[in-house]
Amino acid sequence: MSIDVRTAAPGPRPNPERPAPGAPVKLPGTGGQQQTGWSIGDRIGLAAAWFCGISLCVAAVAIVGFMAWKGVQYLHLEMLTSSPEASLDQSTSGGFLDPLVGTLILTLIGVGIAIPVGVGIAVWLTEYGRPAGLARLVESGVEIVAGTPSIVLAIFGLLVFQQSFMGVFSFTAEGGAVFGRSFLTAGSMMALIALPLVIGATREALHSIPRHVREASYALGKDKASTIRRVLLPSARSGIATGATLGMGRICGDTAIVVVLLGASMQTTPEEGFGGLLRGTGSTLTSYVYNNSPSGEGNAPEKAYAAAFVLLMIVLLLNFAVGLIGKRNKPQWN
Amino acid sequence: MEAASLNNVEVQAPDLDIDRTDRRVELLLGALASTILLLIAGMILFVLIKALPSFTHNGLAWFGAGGSVDDQLMDIFNSPADPADYVYHLRAWPLLYATVLITGVAVVISVVFSVLSAIFIVEFAPDRLRRIIEPVVKLLAAVPSVIYGLIGILVVVPFVAHHLISEDRKESVAYVIQLDGTSILVGIFILTVMICPIMIAIIVDALRSVPDKWVEGAAALGVNRWRAMRTVSLRAIRPAIVAALVLATARALGEAIMLSMVAGSVGFAPNPMDGFTFFLEPARPLASTIVDNAEGLSVVPFGQTMYAFAAILLISSAFLSFAGWAARKSFSRYTLGAR
Question: Which chain B residues contact residue A119 at CB under 8 A?
Answer without folding.
Answer: none
